[in-house]
Write a structure and sequence with these properties.
The chain has a two-stranded parallel ribbon. By secondary structure, the protein is mainly alpha-helical. About 60% of the residues lie in helices and about 5% in strands. The chain has helices at about 1-10, 15-20, 25-35, 45-55, 60-70, 75-80, 100-105, 105-115, 130, 135-155; strands at about 90-95, 120-125. It is built from 10 helices and 2 strands; from the N terminus they run H-H-H-H-H-H-E-H-H-E-H-H.
Length: about 160
């Protein structure tokens, strides 16, 4: 529940969350992110230091809040403006089984509504899949990326991935 409270706080009008977070960005970031992991820290110390350093920047705090505001307001409308058109490129969608997406949404069904060529994987993680199971995530990406690169090269697009 605490994680949802943090997310709802981020959706509030500017400057409410920016001001609140800016008072102690390290504590806010840890509260939000560690709670999504059941109170555990999934980050290696160097990664944690990078995340915290970046989140001390007021522009990063504002951008994070804007991302949550968009998710609560305009993102779905923008998706719907596509008129039912689906993404055609190969797409890999991975989400954490124990996280909000795995617990609250039918992610595979949602992605197949939006993409023609989607491979869906629900992985055994809580939220931060790249930190929790990096080898598994990298292996899944490597299956998709070489096929995408081969397809692009065959179209004479040497610099596109």
């Amino acid at each position: 529940m605490q994680s949802r409270s943090c997310c709802c706080a981020l959706m509030q009008d500017k400057p409410i969350p920016e001001t609140m977070i800016g008072q102690n960005p390290d504590n806010f970031w840890k509260l939000k992110c560690f709670n999504q992991e059941g109170g555990e820290n999934p980050f290696a110390e160097p990664a944690l230091a990078e995340y915290l350093g970046a989140f001390r920047n007021p522009d990063a705090i504002h951008a994070s809040c804007e991302d949550y505001r968009a998710a609560a307001t305009i993102d779905i409308r923008h998706d719907d403006e596509d008129g039912g058109r689906k993404l055609a490129m190969p797409l890999l969608a991975c989400w954490a089984r124990k996280g909000v997406i795995g617990r609250c949404f039918g992610a595979a069904a949602l992605w197949t509504q939006r993409a023609e060529n989607v491979t869906c994987h629900e992985v055994d993680a809580a939220h931060y899949t790249a930190e929790e199971i990096p080898d598994e995530i990298a292996a899944k990406m490597m299956v998709l990326l070489p096929a995408t690169a081969r397809r692009r090269r065959s179209r004479n697009e040497p610099h596109a991935l």
